[in-house]
Design brief:
- InterPro entries: IolE/XylAMocC-like, Xyl_isomerase-like_sf, Xyl_isomerase-like_TIM-brl.
- This is Sugar phosphate isomerase/epimerase family protein.
- GO terms for molecular function: isomerase activity.
- About 45% of the residues lie in helices and about 15% in strands.
- By secondary structure, it is of the alpha/beta class.
- It has a single domain, classed as TIM Barrel, CATH 3.20.20.150.
- It starts with a strand and ends with a helix.
Length: about 270
């Protein structure tokens, strides 16, 4: 597989899945990231038809947090995730992007084992359905939704839980060991989410079009490719900057810049 570009609908203004897919296709992306709620609201059958007609691959389905800190949260978390796995399998999504859920009163090592045990039945069902569970890192400001902030910690969680991961560059680009962590993460990675950070922004979400900020994406994207990753690069630009510029204009620039850092992309094969 050659690296390909998808656009996450979380970037887009509120609209139907049909309108979102039409815009993503018009921008020239090969794939789209959707939310499970969006697919359910549209219906699985109609969503599948929309994606087929636009020629878009559902690169990922956003699930959000998996609760595990208490037995009650675990039971509810499994029920929700199993439903998402079923929907993802029916619509043909290649991965499910999720956060681990918060750890409550648990110490980190305890939370690591508790999460692995809690997600195990869902991971088995996902493997049977051909859907990768891709755990992603977050900012520590989302401690209620995640135990994974550093990419190296995410790798440890994914290995113990026997699941995959997604690299959200915005959340981990400043890790002190990011170069080594990218190499360790690449074999487990099923999605790389791309956006930028402009120095001085303090309020989340404050993501910017790739190339507009200070994240060294021109080095990081090639480094991920050198580590052997050949999957999806998903644009997830959330916040007021994209809206202020205009979603279509900003995403058009984002697609072009992202492809300029991917020597194996369709842009460089033409």
């Amino acid at each position: 597989m050659t690296p390909s570009v998808s656009i996450n609908t979380l970037c887009l203004e509120s609209a139907s899945l049909y309108d979102h897919a039409a815009l993503v296709a018009r921008l020239g992306a090969e794939g789209i990231g959707v939310t499970v709620d969006q697919v359910l609201e549209t219906s699985v059958k109609t969503s599948r038809a929309i994606l087929r007609d636009t020629g878009l691959t559902p690169a990922t389905m956003t699930h959000r947090a998996f609760g595990f800190a208490t037995p009650e949260l675990t039971a509810a978390g499994r029920e929700r995730l199993l439903r998402t796995i079923d929907v993802a399998g029916e619509v043909g999504a290649l991965s499910i992007t999720m956060t681990s859920g918060g750890r409550g009163e648990l110490r980190w090592a305890e939370a690591l084992q508790r999460f692995a045990d809690a997600v195990a039945p869902c991971a088995q069902v996902a493997r049977q359905a051909g859907v990768a569970l891709a755990l992603e890192p977050t900012s520590h400001l989302y401690a209620d939704a995640s135990i994974a902030y550093r990419l190296s910690d995410l790798v440890a969680i994914a290995r113990l839980a026997d699941i995959n991961l997604g690299i959200d560059i915005f959340a981990c680009w400043f890790d002190s060991d990011i170069e080594e962590a990218l190499v360790a993460a690449a074999p487990l990675c099923r999605l790389v989410q791309v956006s930028d950070y402009v120095a001085g922004d303090r309020g989340l979400p404050c993501r910017a079009v790739p190339g507009d900020g200070m994240i060294p994406l021109h080095r990081m994207i090639p480094a991920i490719l050198r580590a052997g990753y050949r999957g999806w690069f998903d644009l997830e630009i959330i916040g007021p900057r994209l809206a202020a510029e205009g979603v279509e204009e900003g995403l058009s620039r984002a697609v072009s810049r992202l492809r300029s850092w991917m020597p194996d992309s369709p842009l460089h094969r033409e």
